[in-house]
Design a protein that fits this description.
The protein has 137 residues and is mainly alpha-helical. Helix content is 77%, strand content 0%.
C-alpha cells in the first residue's frame, strides 16, 4: 500500500479541490517554464547551450503526457496541458528557441550580434571593475 493512500483512492488526506489546485498550479508552472529561457536567449543573443534534441524531446514529451493524462481522466493535470498545447505555448516557445539558436549560431548577422553583445557585457564588467578599483584608491 502506498503511504497515505489508504483505501480512499489515494487522496493523501487532501480534499479533491486541494488536489486539483496542486494539479492546476503544476500545470501552470509547466505552461510558462520556457519564458525565462526565451528571455535569456534574446538578451544574451546566444542559444549555444540549447540543444535541438532537447527541444524536440520536450515537445514530444508534452504531447505524450497530454495523451496519458486524458486517458487517465486526470483533468486537473491535463487541462493546463491542453491550454499549453492548444494555445501553442510550448510549441511556439520551442520553435522560437530553435529559430533563435539557428539565427545566432548559423548566420553571419546573428554571430555578429552575439559577438557585439558579449563584447558589450565584457566592457560593462571591466568598466565596473575599473571604477571600483579607482574608488578604492
Amino acid at each position: 500500500m502506498i503511504a497515505g493512500g489508504g483505501s480512499g483512492g489515494g487522496s493523501y488526506g487532501l480534499s479533491p479541490a486541494a488536489m486539483d489546485a496542486i494539479g492546476y498550479a503544476g500545470g501552470g508552472v509547466l505552461a510558462v517554464c520556457l519564458i525565462p529561457q526565451i528571455g535569456k536567449i534574446v538578451l544574451t543573443r546566444s542559444a549555444r547551450d540549447i540543444s535541438y534534441a532537447w527541444s524536440v524531446m520536450y515537445m514530444i514529451g508534452m504531447t505524450l503526457s497530454l495523451a496519458y493524462l486524458i486517458m487517465k481522466d486526470a483533468m486537473a493535470a491535463w487541462i493546463p496541458l491542453v491550454i499549453e498545447i492548444a494555445g501553442c505555448i510550448a510549441i511556439i516557445m520551442c520553435i522560437a528557441i530553435i529559430l533563435l539558436k539557428t539565427f545566432f549560431e548559423h548566420t553571419a548577422r546573428g554571430r555578429k550580434w552575439s559577438a557585439a553583445k558579449q563584447q558589450q557585457q565584457l566592457q560593462s564588467v571591466l568598466s565596473g571593475t575599473m571604477s571600483r578599483l579607482d574608488a578604492s584608491s
